[in-house]
Automatic annotation (TrEMBL):
NCBIfam families linked: PA_CoA_Oxy1
Name of protein: 1,2-phenylacetyl-CoA epoxidase subunit A
Biological source species: Bailinhaonella thermotolerans
InterPro entries: Aromatic_CoA_ox/epox, Ferritin-like, Ferritin-like_SF, PaaA, PaaA_PaaC
Highest taxon in the source lineage: Bacteria
Record GO terms (molecular function): phenylacetyl-CoA 1,2-epoxidase activity
């Protein structure tokens, strides 16, 4: 088949909402966009283990420790499914890790903020995993098969994450005034960065149109941000916390909540490496990678030995 016929077949498959699989022909731009998006997503899962992982040793009870342990471990699993999905496109796992620790590939800006109290664990579950769910549920229908299938499993676990966060906050809100204050303080700090998780406004997001045409993305950044706000406001009311946005109000005409503009300059700053914890997160990831070198060497030696044994038998 000629390149043109291959492209027509690809576009027909995508147009009919059928999936592109690893063995199928795909335009190089589609492959490159997916590798970049899946790698950034994988990096976010792995770096995202750090802000909450810091609280495992300081969890207030065995029950909270077990829940937090399981959650952080889930995030490692999400990273692994996603790196595997990127490998089906021909990406090399070592190369992706190298790009992350050298700062050439990004991860979600949200994980560059510090966790100052145990209430942050609850607020991350509620708002950060909640925003991740809004972003990720439509990705279960993304056009690339291995990515979509990884997202189905990830989304199930993310909804557990969100619930454990909300349940933790509910418990704290039923506690002492000091505990309620901790929750409100955490909400004040995480609200705006959570809105930034959906990326820049549509007018400032040049790749969105192409990703939508390829059905990698199914909704724009602004659509997903609105969906998140609409979902979260009633939850905040039920919880008894105030979202730190004086512009937040129901708009009956639109059938949505109106809300204020996040500080896009801050988002740019944090993405470009100048957030409160960027250097710390990368340094920790680099150290973990270096300390794990012997494990990778041992695994490779074992695999080689088994392969040699297999041939001899
Ligand atoms: Fe995750
Ligand atoms: Fe999560």
């Amino acid at each position: 088949m000629t390149e043109r016929e291959l492209l027509e077949r690809f576009e027909e498959t995508v147009g009919k909402d059928r999936r592109i699989e690893p063995r199928d022909w795909m335009p190089e731009g589609y492959r490159a966009t997916l590798i970049r998006q899946i790698a950034q997503h994988a990096h976010s899962e792995i770096i995202g283990m750090q802000p909450e992982g810091e609280w495992i040793t300081r969890a207030p009870s065995l029950r909270r420790k077990a829940i937090l342990f399981a959650k952080v471990q889930d995030e490692a699993g999400h990273g692994l499914y996603l790196y595997s999905a990127a490998e089906t496109l021909g990406a090399d796992r070592d190369d992706l890790t190298e790009r992350l620790i050298s700062g050439r590939q990004k991860y979600s800006s949200i994980f560059n903020y510090p966790t100052l109290s145990f209430a942050d664990v609850g607020v991350i579950g509620w708002l950060v995993d909640g925003a991740a769910i809004c972003n990720q549920v439509p990705l279960c229908r993304t056009s690339y098969g291995p990515y979509g299938r990884a997202m189905v499993r990830i989304c199930k676990e993310e909804s557990f994450h969100q619930r454990q966060g909300y349940e933790l906050l509910m418990t704290m809100m039923g506690g002492t005034p000091a505990q309620r204050e901790m929750v409100q303080d955490a909400v004040n700090r995480w609200w705006w960065p959570s809105l930034m998780m959906f990326g820049p406004p549509d007018a400032d997001s040049p790749n969105t149109a192409r990703s939508m045409a390829w059905k990698i993305k199914r909704h724009t950044n602004d659509e997903l941000r609105q969906r998140f706000v609409d979902m979260t406001v009633p939850q905040a009311e039920r919880l008894g916390v105030t979202l730190p946005d004086p512009g937040l109000r129901w708009n009956a005409g639109r059938g949505h909540y109106d809300f204020g503009e996040p500080d896009w300059a801050e988002l740019k700053r944090v993405i470009s490496g100048d957030g409160p914890c960027n250097a710390e997160r990368i340094a920790r990831r680099r150290a973990a990678h270096e300390e794990g070198a012997w494990v990778r060497e041992a695994a490779a030696a074992y695999a080689a030995k088994r392969a040699a044994g297999g041939r001899a038998a």
